[in-house]
């Protein structure tokens, strides 16, 4: 194997927790609220089906191909030529998604905190820090996430407590006043984040306690959905029917906090939460890109690809959108179906084909299990 490191199922779970919520937590209430209105807190519950399905698909594929990820076992399932073609498409998808993530990160920081900072400075700084983590390997990535995990979650818990005086619990009413369809339409926007469980494929081969992979995979989905529900409830309790009018509702929520005219203006907490989450997410996707590229080319070391791919990701940060409005439009419309088809539908087809080949006693599948 190219990567010699090992991580625990618990570390896998918290990596996925931070990876999914990193870009979701700030804009989630606005995205779901456009369709669901006061029922936006229900949307993550319906969307959780996508998270559980994605986790289940890749855990099942990992059971069939324990030491491989989607770039590798695609060749076993659909043949070498088709598998290579699909692997190339997935590598482009991963590169494209990280371009979106770093652009989204840079736009938030520039709009909210550092308006005079050039985009390339924001891109280069986050990619450089992530490159050092990726170069260190899967164990460095897991330990960094484990260290930053409390810093990522504590500001959110503090936010709940500090906003209690501003909450109007009647804003949630009437529950499903217009039926269940608005909250289901809101779930369509939410599911695109849960589709990021696609990246669990690149973590599963390195687990040292494989017997716990299903438990921590499902627990991670549950924790993510619970966090999403709480975030949406806080937003609706404070903002009511105007939640969807804010670009970053969580940032606006923090501005409401004022205790004795002394403890206020704590937007830096949200900035810290965002930067830590984005660092983990960019590092995970970056790692998948570097590792997958080396595996696709069939070389024995991914580290020579780290810096060139980092430079390419900076370029993609500029290429994915010409401005913030174009980025927001793509993320709220086209990206939902694009990522759903690539991260859920195609892996599900691969799993179905793998099951069929197993039923027919495919020798290549048996050989992969023995290895």
From TrEMBL:
Protein name (Swiss-Prot/TrEMBL): Endospore germination permease
Lineage: Bacteria, Bacillati, Bacillota, Bacilli, Bacillales
InterPro entries listed in its UniProt record: Spore_GerAB (IPR004761)
Subcellular location per the Swiss-Prot or TrEMBL entry: Membrane
Keywords: Germination, Membrane, Transmembrane, Transmembrane helix, Transport
Top-rank taxon, per record: Bacteria
Primary localization: membrane
UniProt KW Cytoplasm keyword: no
Family that this chain belongs to: Belongs to the amino acid-polyamine-organocation (APC) superfamily. Spore germination protein (SGP) (TC 2.A.3.9) family.
Keyword Transport in annotation: yes
Membrane topology according to the record: Multi-pass membrane protein
Pfam annotation, one family: Spore_permease
Transmembrane regions: 12-32, 44-61, 81-102, 108-135, 147-164, 184-207, 219-248, 268-293, 305-324, 336-355
């Amino acid at each position: 194997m190219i990567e010699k490191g090992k991580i625990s199922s618990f570390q896998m779970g918290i990596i996925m927790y931070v990876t999914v919520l990193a870009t979701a937590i700030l804009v989630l209430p606005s995205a779901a609220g456009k369709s669901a209105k006061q029922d936006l807190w229900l949307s993550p519950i319906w969307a959780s089906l996508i998270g559980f399905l994605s986790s289940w698909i890749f855990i099942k594929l990992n059971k069939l191909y324990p030491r491989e990820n989607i770039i590798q076992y695609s060749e076993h399932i659909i043949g070498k030529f088709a598998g290579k073609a699909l692997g190339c498409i997935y590598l482009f998808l991963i590169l494209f998604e990280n371009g979106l993530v770093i652009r989204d990160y840079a736009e938030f920081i520039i709009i909210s905190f550092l308006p005079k900072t050039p985009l390339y400075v924001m891109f280069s700084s986050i990619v450089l820090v992530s490159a050092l983590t990726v170069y260190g390997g899967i164990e460095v990535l897991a330990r960094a996430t484990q260290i930053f995990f409390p810093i990522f979650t504590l500001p959110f818990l503090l936010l709940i407590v500090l906003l209690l005086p501003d909450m109007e619990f009647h804003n949630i009413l009437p529950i499903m006043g217009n039926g269940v369809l608005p909250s289901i339409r809101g779930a369509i926007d939410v599911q695109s984040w849960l589709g990021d469980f696609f990246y669990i494929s690149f973590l599963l081969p390195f687990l040292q306690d494989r017997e716990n992979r299903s438990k921590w995979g499902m627990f991670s989905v549950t924790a993510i959905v619970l966090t999403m529900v709480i975030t949406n409830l806080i937003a609706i309790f404070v903002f009511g029917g105007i939640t969807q009018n804010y670009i970053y509702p969580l940032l606006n929520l923090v501005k409401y906090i004022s205790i004795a005219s002394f403890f206020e203006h704590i937007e830096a907490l949200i900035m810290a939460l965002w930067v830590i989450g984005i660092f983990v997410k960019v590092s995970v996707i970056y790692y998948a890109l570097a590792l997958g590229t080396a595996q696709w080319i069939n070389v024995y070391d991914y580290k020579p690809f780290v810096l060139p791919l980092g430079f390419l990701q900076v370029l993609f940060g500029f290429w994915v959108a010409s401005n913030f409005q174009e980025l927001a439009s793509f993320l709220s419309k086209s990206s939902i179906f694009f990522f759903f088809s690539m991260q859920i539908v195609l892996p599900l087809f691969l799993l179905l084909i793998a099951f069929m080949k197993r039923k027919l006693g495919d020798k290549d599948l048996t050989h992969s299990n023995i290895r």
